[in-house]
Structure formats: structure tokens, C-alpha cells
Batch of 2 targets.
Target 1
Amino acid sequence: MEYIGYGNNGQSVKEKILGMSFTYILLMIILAGIGTLTLYSGLTEVGHLGPASI
Amino acid sequence: MRFGVALVLMIFMALIDARQYYKWAYVFYLVSMMLLVAVEVFGHIGMGAQRWINFGLFKVQPSELMKIGIVLFLARYFNAMTIQGIRTIRGLIIPALLTLFPVALIAMEPDLGTSLMVLITATVMVFVAGVQWWKFALVGAAGGGCLPIVWNCLHEYQKNRVLTFLDPERDPLGTGYHIIQSKIAFGSGGIFGKGFLHGTQTHLNFLPEKHTDFIFTMFSEEFGMLGSLTVLALNLLVIALGYLFAFRTRNYFAKLTIIGLNTNYFLYVFINISMVMGLLPVVGVPLPLISYGGTVMFSIMASFGIILCMSVNKSKMAFDDN
């Protein structure tokens, strides 16, 4: 069996990227966005808006 | 920034040929296992547990690597077997031993939450591979019988977590403090929440670990029940899509890998959200993509990358050992 490194079964990188589920990636980005927002709140002390050192 | 780097890692993992994962599955498992043993010998101690290996510039938590390693190992092992072989006791001895060994090593760190996650993920994969349900019932019954022994092997703080789970009011200012404050914060958020940066329970430091394991509590206080349901729904969609990919792919190795990694993600979300609501004992499992913590973010995004890689591969391509 020949291992071609990138791609799958002769698919090019472009074909592979286009074959990925963008809904799946979008959901991850939304969740990470919520995470960043919540982390900002979690690392913010009362009385000022800058993230506190942990 | 952290997510951006993890996203690049995910895309890199997704672009690797699926056959490479098959080829290197055993090696990856072996390296993870060696790192787990190394943690026991000269691991870095932090917050009372010996979970990290310090490489100078960065620290690595081998148990996170093992979550991927065990999935790749079992997927390759079962891919090479016939259903008749899987259903014999002999066919199950190797996967059982090679699952229980890392589970025991992780439990000794001690990291009971992660060891249980590895065990449950492996169990789900063995079930999907076609092992009869009565064997699980048998092992479950034997495990139930061993509970008194397991209980005696637990550390004092682990016993306290279980006792606190059963009755949080037994020590409200000590072991029960976390979970009581978490429930108060949840309830105080109401339906619409107190607003961004206005969570009193969390910002007045009543709630410990608010940016790590208890971040969902903080989110719920600020964004209320509607916000919490949104996060739950988004996670549910990610999990459902993962299982849909597994259902669609025709390759057995890819199917098992997706199911294993997706189950691991499901366990993260389920255990974290249940524990902050008092439905499970506190075991120190973060909420993926949301909690603070680099290793988990990278291991989860690497898992997503592998899932995407396998999902693109819908053809029944041959994975063999030749």
C-alpha cells in the first residue's frame, strides 16, 4: 500500500477541504467564541474590566 | 489566540491521509503509554496530582494523548479482526489488558475522571465492534461486586467527593462548598441571566475554579437558562454530527475511530455539565472549547481533526496490514 501523506484515496488537499463539514467547523468556532467571552468574564475582577492575572 | 493555534492543528490533522492514522495507530498508543509510565517516574506535580511531564518550554499531560491513543489502537485492532474473532474471550483479552493498564496508570496519578473516561470510551468501542451485551452485563456485575474493594482503594479526597455528591450539606463549608455555591449560582441566573460581567456569585469569588471546571456555572449565572440551553444545544449538534459521520462512513477503521473520539467528546460535556449541577461527583473534567486549559483544547481539536479526516473518507478503502 502506498502512503501518499496528504489527501485521501487520491483526493487532493483542495478536494479534501471542500469535503469537510463546514457546519461542524462553524459549531466549534461558535463554541470557542462563547468560551472566550466566558473566560474573559471569569478572569475579570470586580471593579475593572481588564483580565486579572491568574 | 489559543483557539487559533488549535484550529490550525485541527486542519493539519484533518489533511493527513487516513491511512497514516491506521499505520501509526499502535505506535501512537505505545508512545502515549510510555509517557504515562514516565509520568509515574518523573512527572511534574501540580495541584496534588502527578499528571504532567515538563519538557521545559511546555508541559504535556500524557493522559490526554492516551484518550486518542486508545481509540486508534482499538479501531485498528478490531478492524483487523472478524466478528467471530471479536466474540471470543481470547479476542478480547488483548484489548482488555491494553485498556486496563493505562486506565490504572491514570487512576494512580491520581486522575479518576480521566481514567473513567478512557474506560468508558473503550467500552463503547468494544460494544460497537460487536461484543455481545451479556458479556458487558457479566463484567458489570463483577465490577459491582468489587465496589467495596475499589472504595477502600480510593484516596480520602475521592471518598469525600462521592459522599459530598450523595449529601452536599454534610460539610457545607468544606467539601460541599463547591457544589453548593455552584447550585446557588445556577439558580440565581434565572431564565435570562444577570448579564455579561454581572454574575455576583462568580465575580464576588463565592464560586471557586470559575474559569476552569465550573465555567458552565458562571456562564449560566450570566446568561441564564436560555444561554445554558443554547450551549447544550450546540454541543448536542456537534455530538450528533459526529455520530452521523460515523454512520455515513463505510470504512470500519474510520467508523470506530469517529465513534471513539466522539464518545470521548460526549463524555467531557456530559460529565462536566452533570458535575457542576450536582448530578455527578466532582471529578475535575473541564468543559471542552470553553474552560481554560491548553492541553484539553489541543487534544479536543486534534480529535476533531481526525474525525473530519475520517468523515471525508466515505469510500470503502482498504486498510490492511500488508
Note: The beta strands of chain B are 44-46, 49-54, 59-60.
Target 2
Amino acid sequence: MSTLAHVFEAAGLSTIVLASMKEVAEKMAPPRTLYCEFPLGRPLGRPDDAALQRDVLERGLALLEATGPVFETHPEVIESEETPLACSLPPRFDASLPPSVDEAQGLRSAYDRAVEARGHTAVGRAIGVDEIPAALTVLAQWADGAAWKEVPLPGKNTLAVGHDIRAYYTEAALELADGPAPGGRAVEAWFWEETEAGKTMMGARTALKDQDAPFPFWFYMAPGHR
Amino acid sequence: MSGGDAAMREYGAGQAVPTFEDPAFTPLAKPLSEARVALVTSAALHRPDQDRFSPSDTGFRALHRTDRNIVMGHWSPNFDHTGFQIDLNVVFPLDRLEELAADGVIGDVAPRHFAFAGNQPETVSEVRLDTGPACAQEMLSDGVDVVVLTPV
């Protein structure tokens, strides 16, 4: 972002960076910076909080009055929510299936409602929604010791498939959960700590690592701190 | 701060960054209430009908001011994607810009806004020398005065 600010400024545009990483913005010193200590991925603060979003924009635009480089910090700090989202999961339905596959199938109606309401889905980088159970089946096999080179993953790309599975679960969870918008990382915590799919993906990730699969194949399947 | 955000901020703080000798500073040459404002994000946003961002994509996608059918194609698992799922304005505040224009705080909302992918090669030379300047020309051709950059 700061790189683009310098490029745009050189082209004759006036820029404002809503920075989320303080040290990076300080080092790169874009012309006008409003540092906001908000959850990463939420540069305007909170979803469904129009007043805060507008305040962030107005404070950013106010930096245009400065006659030289300026760095200010938004007064509000918003911490990410590390407690898992309260979202119930479907009960075991078909005991012949791996738990994560059974679970994913049980979430399908919630996912379909979510897509109906939104009009679009983030699922589809590597696989479509109908392939989610098949992908989880393979990931469960990897987690149980199958050789990843011998049991191919639908969609092939572990990172893209991981995004598709997480997007499927996220869209279903946001449809199922009641109450105000969850804080940053609450859905992440729910996925990795409470769902069978999260356990399956983490198991597959560990198995890839143990089988000496290339680092980018497995590392970015999950947030680095997990 | 704790958890993933703290880990990422600590990681970011230790990363080498590109340097800019003698950086430009472009003052806004007109009142804000007459200025045209565009958004540019690094969230790899695109409409479903546009090309997806590849993991090493150095290009950008143009989004119309009326587009709301937008997905996040960023490849990093290390930040929250759900805020955007709930309300795109938390990343790409198109509705807030429309309100600021309606209230006369800004002059106008640009007809097009732009998305890059934040996960760039370390040198960011493509963005610096090629796609960044190309995006700037697109905005200048749209009569843009001010750019608000939103990271993820």
C-alpha cells in the first residue's frame, strides 16, 4: 500500500494510507498515513459500523490539509476476537463417513441459504461447492497417513482448496450464527478449534510436512501462528 | 494485542521494505469538497466475472462505483476475511464514500476503484515500475484527485 502511495503521488495524485502495520508504515513513510490499530483485514474498523467507518475516512481525508508528510494514529484500538464464534455444528449423520465429510455435508443447506442471500460466494478458487466433501475425504486420508503423491486432491492446489473449504465454512457459519457481527478471528478460531474440517486440515498439513512436501504446499494452509 | 494479529504485526515489523529516494508529495490543489476520490485496496478484490488473482499476481482489477458483487481473492490465511464477508465497507468503503459525496464533504466518487493483491514479490518492482503507474494513469484519466488506500 505504501509503495502504491509513493507511485501515485509521483504521478500527481494525493494519497492517504490507512495503515495497519505501524512499523512498516513508519519505515516506508507514505505522504499521509492514518495508522489504525484494528484487526488485520478490517482497515475501516468494524463491519456494520458505518459511524466508525465514516470517522476513519474523515480523519484520513483531514490529513490532506497538511503541507508536508504526516503520520497520525486513530484514537480507537480494536482487538481481534480470539474466542471462537458461538455456532453450533450439525450432529453426526452418516457414521460411515469421515467426521469432517459428514460435517461439511450437514452444513450445505446453511451455505446454500448464505449464497442465496449474498448472490455470490468466495468458494471456487480450485473446487466448486460440490467437491468440498471429496476434498475433505482426501485430506482426511492424508491426515491418516496416505501418501499425498499417491492420493490426489481434487483441485490439486492445497492452498486454494484450503481457501475454498474455509470460505464454505465461513459463509455457512455467518448464516447460522446469531447476534452482532463477530470480531476479527472469531470465525478463524471456530474453524480451527471447533470444526472437524479444521482438525482434518491441520492433520493433513502436519502429514504433508512430515512427508517432506514443499514448504509452500502446507505452510499457508493455516494461519502461521497456528 | 495477542494471537494472530500480534504475530503478524511482529513479523511485519521485522521485514525489509523498499526504499524511496526523495519521495513525491502532491498537495491537493482544490478544496476537498470539489475533489474526486477513488479507493485502492491490496485485498485482491474482484467481481466473480473478472480474472481471479494468481498467488503472484502483480496486476490490478478495476471495480465500478456501483459494484457490490465483489469477492476477496487474497491468498494469505493470516488475516480476517470475515469482516469483508459481512460488510464490504470494512475493507472497501464505497457506501461511505457515496455518503460523503452526498453530504458535500468530498466532491465526487470516482467512477472506478482498483484492487491489487497485497502479497507481492519482495522487490515490488512490477508494482513500482509497471502496474502501479498504469493504475495511476487510469485514475488520472477518470479525473481522480485523491486516493484512499486500504490494506488488509
Note: Residues 47 and 70 of chain B are 5 Å apart (CA to CA).
